[in-house]
């Protein structure tokens, strides 16, 4: 699409708009879209009237006639700008915004398709592809990761192309070492999600997974199972904690070459949704047992307040180091606690108990406030819980607000939770924390010259730090002044097209119903369009420097740009009944799985050891089966994906 992104000029915006409306911009059409070519006069007339009205509105918006939403820039004292939220403004055409997201996905996908098809890595500036391993022939890194987004966006012709590649070219029998976690969440997760969506929402996926009689029946599921069987060797360690990497041909686990052989806690403990869903689909209990064993081994460390160091040994099953954080290497351990509880429809309460314990631990040890704006920070404890707090947040931590909200209601709206009598002080307080943390994550975008968040943000805080237990502080509005307390170090100002904040906006919108979250998302999306476009047909790329204009581009499109970031934008602007949150559970790579009830011989195969209020194991003999002490107070935590990547193995983020 020529100039197919939101530029500054009004003229450009209108051109874009009319381009999109009048030209057959996308070959892909909704499955049930009429292709008769017969004119539909009334519809066409309304479409024209709609176009004119929208054009007038767009002009008005940019001339400042309307307060078109919560995030309009308001000029205040001394001409300084203030970002404010709260207003609703005129009704917005969310369908049109959603189509814009689809347009950006198409540009990104088509760039990849044209210049790097079948490669794991895509460089949109040099317009080249690369495999993650020189010996490898491609793992489908981008194609498989994007499959379910193609379905959700109903991009049928592109989906057919992807499915054909998977059917004819994708072969996991390769003598290459891959990262266990990344391969599980992206490849297995992508295939399983494609299987689920194509069966559950056949109108979205023109080609079902079950091509009766055709070669490659249940293609996605078969590929997922083949891959899972190769990954399973990673779990064959002394402790049951999986090795960081695995050879796909031999299925032999490979200990991490870095970190004294330790695995990342988050990586070891974020494989469960995928292997459990596969066990459910295939009836193979082994997948279930290996995955859940990891959580048992981790929990048997009896960490204080459910907060964990970011490394764990696959030999002993015990932690390495003292670094506790919910950023890189820690993040999705926590995410998968609550999501495991939701995946099996609330039938495994020990995961909710662990989540609650960890959340209390987060509040006790990690929540502090910036100074003077009192923005809520989810900080780190590099030297353990008795060490000094480090007021730093990886962008990765921004999954947390949405996940907290999800944990509060299980996916239904606040209103519905209240009606169902599932609302009390804890829910109220957790939701407030989610709201404040979302604002902080949004602030990370607002303080940047491009409007795109850095990889890592530091904050100015008081010394000693004001903790939540010293009293909850109300945050100020995010204004230009916030730049003084959101501290962006030179090495941290890159933007890797990450999804976590829009992921949280999506959950917050669905759960609170506050349109402010959609408006924030729209602003973020416009910044991505404006500043991350590679060139006319390359697609979109990540940024080496997001805090200067023009930004410095990096020559890489992350696969999660297609799998997660654009999917969450699309869902944020979609109607709320599209993929209802209380019937699905979304993995850490935004792949969508169903919730299900424990069935057959799939059940929780372990019990938590008795522990004291702080979460330490109490060495008393167990008495009755199922005996666990419910500990109300406790939490857990988890290095930068940058470090995770390229450590000599394939598939590190
Ligand atoms: C993704 O691969 C997953 O979301 C993972 O959990 C964290 N890192 C990236 C996105 O930032």
Automatic annotation (TrEMBL):
InterPro entries under this entry? 6hp_glycosidase-like_sf, Glyco_hydro_47, Glycosyl_Hydrolase_47, Seven-hairpin_glycosidases
Gene3D superfamilies in UniProt: 1.50.10.10
The domain of life is: Eukaryota
Q: Where do the annotations place Ca(2+) binding?
A: 588
* EC number, UniProt record: 3.2.1.-
Q: Does the keyword Endoplasmic reticulum apply?
A: no
Residues passing through the membrane, by range: 48-66
Which reactions appear under catalytic activity for this entry? N(4)-(alpha-D-Man-(1->2)-alpha-D-Man-(1->2)-alpha-D-Man-(1->3)-[alpha-D-Man-(1->2)-alpha-D-Man-(1->3)-[alpha-D-Man-(1->2)-alpha-D-Man-(1->6)]-alpha-D-Man-(1->6)]-beta-D-Man-(1->4)-beta-D-GlcNAc-(1->4)-beta-D-GlcNAc)-L-asparaginyl-[protein] (N-glucan mannose isomer 9A1,2,3B1,2,3) + 4 H2O = N(4)-(alpha-D-Man-(1->3)-[alpha-D-Man-(1->3)-[alpha-D-Man-(1->6)]-alpha-D-Man-(1->6)]-beta-D-Man-(1->4)-beta-D-GlcNAc-(1->4)-beta-D-GlcNAc)-L-asparaginyl-[protein] (N-glucan mannose isomer 5A1,2) + 4 beta-D-mannose; N(4)-(alpha-D-Man-(1->2)-alpha-D-Man-(1->2)-alpha-D-Man-(1->3)-[alpha-D-Man-(1->3)-[alpha-D-Man-(1->2)-alpha-D-Man-(1->6)]-alpha-D-Man-(1->6)]-beta-D-Man-(1->4)-beta-D-GlcNAc-(1->4)-beta-D-GlcNAc)-L-asparaginyl-[protein] (N-glucan mannose isomer 8A1,2,3B1,3) + 3 H2O = N(4)-(alpha-D-Man-(1->3)-[alpha-D-Man-(1->3)-[alpha-D-Man-(1->6)]-alpha-D-Man-(1->6)]-beta-D-Man-(1->4)-beta-D-GlcNAc-(1->4)-beta-D-GlcNAc)-L-asparaginyl-[protein] (N-glucan mannose isomer 5A1,2) + 3 beta-D-mannose
Q: Does the keyword Calcium apply?
A: yes
Which SUPFAM superfamilies does the protein's record reference? Seven-hairpin glycosidases
GO (cellular component) term, any one: membrane
Q: Which UniProt keywords apply?
A: Calcium, Disulfide bond, Glycosidase, Hydrolase, Membrane, Metal-binding, Transmembrane, Transmembrane helix
Which is a GO BP term held by this UniProt record?
Answer: ERAD pathway
Molecular function GO terms recorded: calcium ion binding; mannosyl-oligosaccharide 1,2-alpha-mannosidase activity
* Xref: Pfam families: Glyco_hydro_47 (PF01532)
Residues at the active site? 182 (proton donor), 331, 455 (proton donor), 500
Disulphide bonds in the chain: 398-441
Give the pathway listed in the UniProt entry for this protein. Answer: Protein modification; protein glycosylation
The cofactor required is: Ca(2+)
Similarity remark: Belongs to the glycosyl hydrolase 47 family.
Tell me the protein's name. alpha-1,2-Mannosidase
Protein source organism: Ramalina farinacea
Q: Which gene encodes it?
A: MNS1
